[in-house]
Amino acid sequence: xxxxxxxxLKRYTQEDLHRSWRExxxxxxxxxxxxxxxALLDNPAANLMAxxxxxxxxxxxxxxxxxxxxxxxxxxxxxxxxxxWVGLILLSPLSVWRQSHTxxxxxxxxxxxxxxxxxxxxxxxxxxxxxxxxxxxxxxxxHPANALLGLVTVFxxxxxxxxxxxxxxxxxxxAVCLMLHGSILALALSCHAFWPWFRAxxxxxxxxxxxxSVLFYVQHNFPSVIYQKQRARRGEPAPLECSSQLDLPxxxxxxxxxxxxxxxxxxxxxxxFYRLPEVWKDxxxxxxxxxxxxxxxxxxxxxxxxxxxxxxxxxxxxKELEKL
Length: 324
Fold this sequence. Notes:
- The chain is mainly alpha-helical.
- It has 16 helices and four strands.
- It has helices at 6-9, 17-40, 44-68, 77-89, 94-106, 124-129, 132-141, 144-148, 151-166, 172-190, 194-218, 250-255, 262-267, 276-282, 296-303, 318-322, and strands spanning 245-246, 291-292, 305-309, 314-317.
- The strands form two sheets. Strands 1-2 form a two-stranded parallel ribbon.
- A hairpin with a 4-residue loop joins β3 and β4.
- α3 crosses α11 and α9 packs across α10 (172-190).
- The chain starts with 5 loop residues before the first helix and ends with a helix.
């Protein structure tokens, strides 16, 4: 079944401004409310509020991500100001995210470019030529423990500190991000409010970073993924086989702002998240793409992948790689 052209999908890029504002304000309000309750309560319910704030933060991040693509409140300066602060709070400075994620979309499914905006993918040849330390670093990056510590490794270091060190003039907002979070922590300590800070900021961000890191990984690292050396034609969308789509119940898609329709998003990034289910319904060709159920066994399969075998055009597992 043939996929639609980008021209056919253009009508789905039209957003409902009233709905967009409702989605944004409701998500911000829910996230702020759960965070405030996590800080103010002093009982086991506070931890539940912190977890709820973490899940809400993931949804807020996906909406932020849509805005950067120009799919969500694209012409509103006020929305842009809101999202600038949202990026800082979620450890994703706007300049860093825009640069790395735009590159990622242009080069999705090309294994030589997977290290920017996603997780690196080596070939068997690269693995053989690499030093022991390089192999250890590569294996760590693709290990689930890296996602578990995503707040520090993927976001704080990868999205804030490293870009600031490399290009301080361009990514000056990363410095603002560090100062903002440092100031919040310093204020909490000076007011003897470490535990309220821990529940309202640290736990939600840690959970959101973990979920975000796992999503970053499984969206383009799954057993049936097909990588390319380069695009057949410049500017063409990434092949359907490069991106997984999540098999989630309706409430799961709602919580994640429909990021589970990831192949459609890569096919036309300017479609607002709340219109992706329409595309899924109207164009059954997208149903042929890889469908991933986020179960423990499926996640093990994804994290068990090691390198790309150019000869056989498939990903090898770590066990298979050991036998080479």
